[in-house]
Amino acid sequence: MKGKADIGLIGLAVMGQNLVLNMADHGFSVAVYNRTIEKVDEFLVGEAKGKSISGTHSIQELVASLQTPRRVMLMVKAGSAVDAVIEELLPFLEIGAIIIDGGNSFFKDTIRRQKYLEAKGLRFIGTGVSGGEEGARLGPSIMPGGSASAWPEIKSLFQAISAKVGPNNDIPCCDWVGSDGAGHFVKMVHNGIEYGDMQLISETYFLLKTLLKKSPPEMSSLFAEWNTGVLDSYLIGITADILQKRDEDTGTWLIDMILDKAGQKGTGVWTSQIALELGVPTPTLMEATVARAVSAQKKDRLAFAKQLGAPQTAGERVSEEFLKSLHDALYAAKMLCYAQGFQLMRAAATEYGWDLQYGSIAYLWRGGCIIRARFLERIKEAFDQQPDITNLIQAPYFSPTLLAAEQHLRDVVCVATRSGIPVPAFSSALAYFDALRTEVLPANMVQAQRDYFGAHTYERIDKEGVFHTEWIET
Hints:
Layout: E1 7-10, H1 14-25, E2 30-33, H2 37-45, E3 53-55, H3 59-64, E4 71-74, H4 80-89, E5 98-101, H5 107-118, E6 123-130, H6 132-138, E7 141-146, H7 151-161, E8 164-165, E9 171-172, E10 178-179, H8 182-210, H9 216-226, H10 234-242, H11 267-278, H12 283-296, H13 298-308, H14 322-352, H15 358-364, H16 376-385, H17 398-418, H18 424-436, H19 443-454
Parallel strand pairs: 1-2, 1-4, 2-3, 4-5, 5-6, 7-10
Antiparallel strand pairs: 6-7, 8-9
């Protein structure tokens, strides 16, 4: 490659390599660096061969190979590694250069890094990138935020490599999200919703398997059929694919050979922590995170099952009609899961001073990312019609759809409970929906208890003010 590169990228793991190839395919020249130098050389003689990609063997060489204003994208592990690479870059970057963090960094770290770098005359973008290996290669959803003046310098590149949606497949799933940590925050919420969505699908699979005794290929056909309607989404589609895959070693269905221990990388935990900090109810997102933690306790679960036995049930009998209830319950619960995520973003926008455009965010997620789904169009419509709506369950499409599916969701939770089958995501979605529509909750008793033991005071329904009671006569 001759001349200066358009952008530099540090970190040649799977996501980094695929983003570089994507950039090169769209006409951009890219210089790359990796701490393990051998990886650079292997990449250049492998998939990068013949493309507008050049390798460098040091940070200084990488920076020197870039046109100005220099743009350097980091695809390294979130945390201290990001700070370490930034410090390595600083001696070689000129005023106005742009550093882009494309990893799954915690948004508060992004806020801190932007302030630090802007004080040194540099610009910083913290961008969420979703879509996994395939998305990175063919077009991810990209959620940039940070130094606003840097956006025009990176916009054409990011929008070129992103996924495209719309009637003419020409609307990029990439747009400016907001200042400082907004981009990484929106990506974090995306991942929190992803946790909830995946847990709901896994609970649906488990009910089909245990109650309706469906085989993997039967379930695969069912999910494939559902994926042609309102449930159309990436996660439903890959579930259909997973359920028809055989294990090469045993010849049995691969899903039955996979240990029931789910991993996690932290974004679900972050989402739950921030929701608690901001006082926003996101029970389905939280329960999905808890469910992964419970699954990881495999040794304990085996011991408890042996000691306590399986749940004592009446052996719930269900018919094929249960499939209709399960379909509608899954759709309703998914809606409630997404509603929780958008409510969290609204609260964060107020807390951190972000001007988040919720309809645009829904469209950013319409293609390329893991939670892409047909009904994100409905979310965009809802915010286009009512930009100030506080919760999606109020929207013209969502409200009647949820009410129509309510009994199905209730039936699924009841059947699962009577059958001793844990469905924390379904249960929490229903409880959330019920609680939001209940005029009087038992929180008055909680307040009375708090006032009793801690003099925390309470408000009354019949007059203004804050009150305290001496509950025991002395």
